[in-house]
Amino acid sequence: MEEECPMRPGEDLLDNPVEWGRQLIKTEDHDPLYTGLWRWKLRGAGGDRGRRDLIAYWSCSNRGGAWRLRKHQGEEFWTWLHTAAVNEVGPDTLGVCALPRWPRAHERRHWRGQKCVDSVAWLRERFPQPEDAVRSLEDLPGQVNLAAVELAVTHWPQFGPWIAFKAADMLERVMGVPVAFPNSITTLYRDPRKGAEMAGPLMGHLTPQGVTERLLEEYRTMCAPPGGDRWVNVQEVETVLCKWKSARNGKYWIGLDTRDHREELERWGAHDLLACYPTPAA
């Protein structure tokens, strides 16, 4: 008799988007990178080092690569990021990681080729100190909101709406910048909108915006990770819907991102950041 495959975390809740999302948030697999960087910052690795980590991550969305790049300052940082952009000399040749090429996350798969190289040159010219790219967003005039951050970031070559949203989200969650987000956000972007459309029939045939509002109501007394300094809001709901959609399609399970991130950080030797990461859901 064949053994049954063990049930993965959250698999029994896939027909219940509300409770599935609640479990996701509690495990911090919601955004394990945020938890890792936030704890890392508390241990004294914030400030300009943290800002360099963010601009490196926003460029290639590779956790280990960003950790390695943030070690460098000023012109040296841009030289290393240029090397990653050209991608002819791999991390293995440079002795920093046993990988033949500098990786890009799926979400930043278009950050490659000459346009990618030109993007680094553009940033390098405008922000000789790489941390100033992040600081320019922290210092936006007036009340900082998602629209203002998106307008600034999408002005950077090869930085589109998705990475602009992540920049705003990480400014608020990791750097503590009070960025305001509209509650209609889940209907503005494709993946959370698709997730809300899939969840609607399971939640009383709600519209996508109705799904968002229902989740916001259900989670209104949950503390938002990683700092627990505010209640869960639309940022977390956006990620719940994206990941729930992937889980329903068999491409994700609760704990997968934490596991993959930890493996990646181990590969790069990022033991200081690894020590700050959450552990995968059991």
Walk me through the structure:
By secondary structure, the chain is mostly helical. The protein has one domain (11-257). It is built from 15 helices and no strands. The protein has helices spanning 17-27, 32-45, 47-60, 63-69, 74-86, 91-94, 113-126, 131-138, 146-153, 161-173, 190-199, 208-218, 234-248, 256-268, 271-274. Helix 1 crosses helix 13 and helix 4 (63-69) packs parallel to helix 14. The two termini are 26 Å apart. The model has no long low-confidence stretch (mean pLDDT 93).
Task: Chart the SSEs and their pairings.
Blueprint: H1 17-27, H2 32-45, H3 47-60, H4 63-69, H5 74-86, H6 91-94, H7 113-126, H8 131-138, H9 146-153, H10 161-173, H11 190-199, H12 208-218, H13 234-248, H14 256-268, H15 271-274
- Radius of gyration (Å): 19 Å
User: Distance between the terminal alpha carbons, to the nearest Å?
Assistant: 26 Å
Tally of structural domains = 1
The dominant shape is globular
Give the fraction of residues assigned to helices: 55-70%
Largest sheet: none
Give the low-confidence spans: none
Number of helices: 15
